[in-house]
Amino acid sequence: MNSLNHAGRVDGFLKVEVEVRKSRIDGKGLFAQSTIEARQKLGELGGELIKLNEARKRARQHRRIAIVELGHGKALDSCKYGNALRYINHSCSPNTFVRIVGTRVEVYALRQIRPGEEFTCDYGDTQHDGNLPCRCGSGNCRKFI
C-alpha cells in the first residue's frame, strides 16, 4: 500500500518486473518483462501529493506530464518522485487501466500482456485539452489527446 511520508510524497510500489526504455509512442515507455495476466495489479504510482491548482500550474510548464488528478482538490505529481509506472504512455487502445482510491493510483492490466509489450493507458481528459497529436498508432486512434 502507498504510504504518505512527512514530505508529502506517496511511496508507490511495483508488483511486476518492468523495463523503462525508448518507446515508439513517445519518449521513454514501460515494458513488461514477463507475462502479465488480465486484471493483474501492476502496482501503485508514486509521487508528490499536491493541491490541484498547483498541479495545473506545473502541467502548463511541461510537455510531458506525469500528473493524475485525484479529486477533492488534490493531485499526484509523479514527475520528480514517481516510480517506473510514470512511463506508461497513452494509447487509444490501452492494455492497462487506472483505479483511484483516495490518494492511491493503482494500475491494472486490462488483458494479458506479453513479455516485451509496452504498457499503455487511455489518459482520458488531459491538460492538453485535445490539442496534443496522439502518436499511439492504434486503429482506434482519436488523433489528439
Name some characteristics of this structure.
145 residues, mainly beta, Beta-clip-like, five-stranded antiparallel sheet, 1 helix
General description of the model:
The chain starts with a strand and ends in a 24-residue tail after the last strand. The longest helix has 9 residues, at 52-60. The protein has a 5-stranded antiparallel beta sheet with strand order 1-2-7-9-8. A 4-stranded antiparallel beta sheet has the order 3-6-12-11, with no helix packed on it. The protein has a two-stranded antiparallel ribbon with strand order 4-5. It is globular. Strand 8 (67-71) and strand 9 (74-77) form a beta hairpin. With 145 residues, the protein is mainly β. The mean pLDDT is 90. The chain has one domain: Beta-clip-like. The protein has one helix at 52-60; strands spanning 3-4, 9-11, 13-14, 18-22, 28-32, 41-44, 47-51, 67-71, 74-77, 89-90, 96-101, 104-109, 120-121.
- In CATH, what is the class? Mainly Beta
**Which strand order does the major sheet show?**
1-2-7-9-8
User: For the record, what is the CATH homologous superfamily label?
Assistant: SET domain
Q: How would you sum up the global shape?
A: globular
For the record, the count of structural domains works out to: 1
Q: State the end-to-end distance.
A: 30 Å
**Beta-strand proportion:** 35-45%
Radius of gyration from CA coordinates: 15 Å
> Count the helices. How many?
1
> What's the count of strands?
13
Reported for the largest beta sheet, the result is: 5 strands, antiparallel
The residue fraction in helices comes out at under 10%
Report the CATH topology name. Beta-clip-like
Question: What's the architecture in CATH terms?
Answer: Beta Complex
